[in-house]
Design brief:
By secondary structure, the chain is an alpha/beta fold. The protein is built from twelve helices and twelve strands. Helices cover 31% and strands 23% of the residues.
Amino acid sequence: MTHSDSDVVLAVENLQTHLYTKRGLVRAVDGVSFDLRSGETLGIVGESGSGKSMTALSLVRLIPRPAARIVGGSVRLDGEEILEKSEAEMRAIRGEQIAMILQDPQSSLNPVFTVGDQIAETFQLQGKQPRGRMRERAIAALREVQVADPENRVSNFPHEMSGGMKQRVVGAIAVARRPRVLIADEPTTSLDVTIQAQYLRLLRSIQQQTGTSIIFITHDFGIVAKMCDRVAVMYAGRIVEYGPVHSIFATPSHPYTQALIASVPSPDTKVERLESIEGQPPVPWDLPKGCRFAPRCPFVMDRCRADYPPMFATQSAGDGDAEAEHAAACRLLEGES
């Protein structure tokens, strides 16, 4: 799943993050591998509890301690292994090279500081600067994310702003120092449909201006279609399918991906009831031995329960072109590879 392409910005290989709970060991991220290329948007999609957010937190090494621990794998940012960096080195990397937009701006912003001070704090990591200069840079950052009247809004406290505006402030903080990689963890979850569309256009615009590579985490395949170049589908801590967005929408190969796409309503088609996925995800501290989707899969076979399937190239992967790769962890593809 990894590449030697010169344009790879972030290379993740066999990443493993475990949670140590009273009920047992949870393999929250269990051997995740993917590449992020320069200027592209990679979607990570799946149900709640699939491991998307824990993957993101592992990449920036902000997992909840002491319960969570990265126990294996590699994360290389521009060729440098960041899992081996000290905490002081990671503080320098965060914001400068890799940044994250969390899904809840209400909990991301400090209620006792103005938004201007919180944006300015990002720039202070580059060295002490005059207060007037910091205010100017904070205003410019708000203007960049299209906050109206930034000269006055810079003095607002978070509670004086709407949810959509707070989400823009969080975005301003994340992109202020032009990171190489931006991780957006379900940033539109708390926004209404109109504001959501505006925010997605804003992220696209920022990416075009800065060349930032984006990892967009979501449970919504509709957003994936609008935002992403490639997509990785996660289930129970593992990637079950990955490939170019157009290929996965045209020929979804894993039954879980097929079910997720089928559950997205089409505005052009009238249906009596929405599609749903039968059953529940597995208990995270007691995962099945074989395919983790097997208990919910309509195509399950005995061999699916025997051991976890490897990744198989799909027919849509075509002539071996790396840009067109498409693979899924499903025994249904075993005879095609």
